[in-house]
Amino acid sequence: MTDDAESTMPLGTLTARLAEQAGALAGAVGSPLEPPAYLDLVRRARDVDGLAGQVLKLTVQQSRDAGHTWQEIGELLGVTRQAAFQRFGKPIDPRTGAPMDKTVRMENAAERARQIAEAVLGDRMDEARPYFNAQVLEAFTDEVRGSGMATVAGLVGAFEGFAEDAPFVRRVGDHTVVDIPLHYEAGDMKARVAFDTEEKVAGLFILAPETP
After folding, report:
1. CA distance 173 to 39
2. Domain ranges of the chain
3. Which of 61, 135, 185, 192 is most buried per CB count within 10 Å?
4. How far apart are CA 197 and CA 174, in angstroms?
5. Which residues of 137-167 are buried (b: 16+ CB within 10 A; e: fewer)?
6. HSE of 140 in the Cβ direction (CA atoms, 13 Å)?
7. Cα 86 to Cα 45, 134, 154, 199, distances in angstroms
8. Is residue 164 very low, low, confident or very high in pLDDT (cuts 50, 70, 90)?
9. Where is the DUF3887 domain (predicted)?
10. Which of 48, 67, 60, 51 is CA-nearest to residue 14?
11. What CATH number should be reported for the domain whose range is 109-207?
């Protein structure tokens, strides 16, 4: 059964299926004297994870319908309200009135964004520039980079490394946008790398973590 079909099920039906599959997974673990079929466990765990995601999506939708805010939902999930909206919301294109496609089609966006951020933060611009589009290549000079890094250092001190939190990847309009958590001497920041439709860097910023 597809995710779309499952998403149309009532919450009670979904949770009953989730409980059934979780019970089957627990039963398949076996006893300490009888090792389980590990690939079967992977398959069962995948199915449980997929159903749990459908239950979470539906409960978020119902919470929104009941009047709860994205701020409340984000705090409960341990993310910003924007991250909650990007994951579960249904943005409408103001130009057409149609739902916007949020599918991220760029492969390895997080890995490439981190590679570019590492090069820029490490003053290895020759490694980063081949990924820039023409506008960024012209505008993001060594002087601009130096000025930006100095401004950030004045706010939060020296760069200390990348945070353990996973990058946040989403589609915004025609762009793929990646936020990468960073640690600085006196506070946390994030690098934001935006890729255009040609998968070239269309923007690169160091921002406060709460920046939408």
Report:
1. 39
2. 3-88, 109-207
3. 192
4. 6
5. eeebeeeebeeeeeebeeebeebeebeeeeb
6. 22
7. 26, 28, 31, 20
8. confident
9. 113-204
10. 51
11. 3.10.450.590
Contact by Cβ (8 Å): 117, 193: yes
Please answer whether residues 77 and 144 qualify as being in contact, where contact means their C-beta atoms are separated by less than 8 angstroms. no
Burial state string for 93-107 with b = 16 or more CB within 10 A and e = fewer than 16: eeeeeeebeeeeebe
Fill in the DSSP letter of residue 132. B
pLDDT tens figures, 96-149: 777 776 778 898 999 999 999 999 999 999 999 999 999 999 999 999 999 999
Using an 8 Å Cβ cutoff, are 12 and 58 in contact? no
pTM for this structure? 0.63
Q: Let me know how long the chain is.
A: 212
